[in-house]
């Protein structure tokens, strides 16, 4: 731009008028830019809060014993090693324990889907006496802290007697602790881990399906069971996948019930992780807790991997199911 033009522009700057539409346009752009910056800052902060500990664990899992006591090392190890993963795989008996864990949580998940979907369908479609009262009881199981019922649960399964039948026949109650049987029984009777929430999800989803589907099936001669399994449950697949993912993740991460019922540590991977530091101390003679903690970090990453893969494969259906079930409000 010629210098003479610039000088003329500066000389007449106070006489320049800006069109109101142009001003509004620039104001809108500035507002949008500031809002985008605000959203980015919020997401960045939340991501750091959530992912920060995980990134720290992942980084520390590659530390060597020299890196632990080197004050110059932060996040990136100077002498990275895979020895922590080798120890974790060995002392967790990873693949064998993972196999037992997957069989356990998949079985529990299938039972939970079957039971809670039937209960949710009943609440959504059928009228029966005390329906509202019974559904209120389901809601109570969602909000009631599990710690408040841990002692009754422990005593119940410590001296398990089905409706007093064993004592009536002169038999002693059965001790069901130190096994997975209490969790199977609770799941079968609709009181397993988060079963109340899953009943609520299915109820909300079935209420959103058109009644014409069932009416058409009834006209064609289908009974209630055929209609439920072949029509309604098939159309409720997003809710089924949502419940499946939630159930698998929560069963996989659960240590409350597994410790309460003293389940075998060689069957539950998360329980085994809680004992790995003591195992390293007594078998591998690693007395330094700072060094043995590195193997715990590696074991944590190994435990996260299977559930991360499940989530990545099913995240599309999980989001859809949550939106359609109404649990996001």
Automatic annotation (TrEMBL):
Q: Does the keyword Lyase apply?
A: no
Signal peptide (UniProt feature, chain positions): none
Keyword annotations for this protein?
Answer: Cell membrane, Membrane, Transmembrane, Transmembrane helix, Transport
Q: Which residues form the ABC transmembrane type-1 domain?
A: 98-314
Q: Name one Pfam family in it.
A: BPD_transp_1
Q: Name the SUPFAM superfamilies for this protein.
A: MetI-like (SSF161098)
* Subcellular location(s) of the protein: Cell membrane
Q: What's the domain of life for this entry? A: Bacteria
Q: Which family does it belong to?
A: Belongs to the binding-protein-dependent transport system permease family.
Q: Kindly give the membrane topology term recorded for this protein.
A: Multi-pass membrane protein
Checking PANTHER family in the record gives: ABC TRANSPORTER PERMEASE PROTEIN MG189-RELATED-RELATED (PTHR43744), ABC TRANSPORTER PERMEASE PROTEIN YESQ-RELATED (PTHR43744:SF6)
| Alphabetical list of Gene3D superfamilies matching this protein | MetI-like (1.10.3720.10)
Name of the molecule in the record: ABC transporter
Q: Taxonomic classification, please? A: Bacteria, Bacillati, Bacillota, Clostridia, Thermoanaerobacterales
Principal localisation? membrane
Membrane-spanning intervals of the chain: 33-55, 101-121, 133-154, 183-202, 228-250, 294-314
Give an example GO biological process: transmembrane transport
Q: Listed GO cellular component terms?
A: plasma membrane
